[in-house]
Amino acid sequence: MRLAVPLALCAALALAGCGSREEAEPTPQTETPQAYETQAAVETGNAQAFIDRIASAELFNVEAGKAAIELGSSPEVKTYAEMMGHNRANSTDALREAVAQGADGLTVTPALSAEQQARLERLRNSGGNFDQVYAMQQTEALRQTLDTLRAYAVSGDDPALRKYASATALKVERHLETAKELR
Q1: Which of 3, 59, 100, 178 has the fewest CB atoms inside 10 Å of its own CB, making it the most exposed?
Q2: 31-181: CATH homologous superfamily?
Q3: Do 81 and 69 meet the contact criterion of CB atoms below 8 Å apart?
């Protein structure tokens, strides 16, 4: 009998934590083994890992921007999304130019990671919370991109890409500040 009350209390507390969280945006999954391996390669100056990570980030921002133009509700979000789409496409062009000036054998082939595809899907399905989810995702994605750019600018193994990383970091920093204001 003495155990019945504590067990019932534990069961009730456990069930209380099982509520639906569909409305809340899940925490971005940045701690995957692939993310660590890619970041480690970037931090040690691996040019192709840097290119792949940045090209992927640029594509994510462009695709999220397209969704924001279509599904966003506030004029600020739509304007920001248009600006990001244009600027990130230009940044990808600048990345291609830096790669052309850099070491042989490097390629720019933008592709979304599984994590980025999942984020876009959550964004597209966020309904009435679209603007908030977009602002949060942009802030997180731009922070990650900025960290990657800064790391490569300091320790990258390709001079043309280090120059690109340094110049692009300044632009991404401004975009990050603007994304924070969308909240």
Answers
A1: 3
A2: Ferritin, core subunit, four-helix bundle (1.20.1260.10)
A3: yes
